[in-house]
């Protein structure tokens, strides 16, 4: 079946809105064709023959002069003359993002962008979306015939070579315009639903990771309180900035303090929680807060950040508990990471541990300011409860059982102040994917000094400190939102030969 479309022939645009409209039309036509074909295919007892295929839209720009209008921005321009392109997907999620990137390209280079139909087919799995399960809804005969009729996901075009800086175009091939191609984005969107039990469209631009359910419980309580109707003027003002709250299963609770609010959506009935449940305190422009319990370990930390990165968030931070390594620390003290000793062993092939992960001043200052405001301690007095230094991240939960010489040498040489299993991975993947990152941990035990994490002590500690720590995290996100994405996505995260898209 051929795609008879007025957009089969590419077209150039100098207006970002018109370019975005063309992208939406191409994707919609491809989607409708595949859905119609799949509907006919699934309804017949003898699957039809003849291939049904449709392709992603693409955007391309050819630049003769790599000068740009505003040299302060870290994105929105190409670094040298040439032709650059990328495939695009899900304009329902990325419409504002794509339009912003297109507008910057046109503004910086005073050159039109070209939009057309690419040669990259859309796998049928991706067009069916997060709520369709092929294996559960098709017969074995249909599943056997599926590859003969529809395009399936192709892992050979879904790697992270561009983000890792080791993708080199062949002669005559376009340079990449974005870190992720459309198929790489699509697989992550589906994986997010699998791991978090919420659709990708609900994710917000400011993300908090935690390794304890206590934080999530407190976040849920705060969010429900914000959504509940109130006559109190201050509470109504505080809650008005958020439009809804989404829980696993896509259960939506709308803000009852906003005029014309919608009726709550029940969502899916979950028999069990997903591996990394996500909760979303939403704002209409996507600048709300997503919070995820990633569980314990660097593997989970890498898994979830690999996929959230395609959404191009403006910041992510880690709030969790850690082992305090200094005798001068007390339980409940905060540890603000300004460096990482990475022994997570999950990113060494993509980002070698010898590569430093720098602290980002905007994130550091926001976290410190939030601790000051929430605790009431200022300046030198802040040192009573917070220490800034290196965080060690390891992949062995029982690191305490190593021989003393082996256990202490690296920690002492690095001047580490705390140890956990996720922070280094989250920061490193933020660095790798150009997502601003930060870490604020809370000391829950001091195993090197005879204070091991034991059940009774841990329960008491969690109840006392979690609420304050979470309030610090929420305030940090508010402060980062006020800074704005232009300043957050700084040049510190960009490589020598960088893609144009943020």
Could you please describe the fold and organization of this structure?
The protein is α/β, with parallel strands linked by helices and 502 residues long. It has two domains: 11-192, AMP nucleoside phosphorylase, N-terminal domain (amp nucleosidase, domain 1, 2-Layer Sandwich), CATH 3.30.1730; 198-493, 3-Layer(aba) Sandwich (Rossmann fold). The protein is 37% helix and 19% strand. The protein has 15 helices and 15 strands. A five-stranded mixed sheet has the order 1-4-2-3-5. Helix 11 (361-375) links the parallel strand 12 (334-343) and strand 13. Helix 8 packs across helix 14, helix 10 packs parallel to helix 13 (423-432) and helix 11 crosses helix 14 (455-483). The chain is globular, with a radius of gyration of 24 Å. The two termini are 36 Å apart. Residues 1-7 have low confidence and may be disordered.
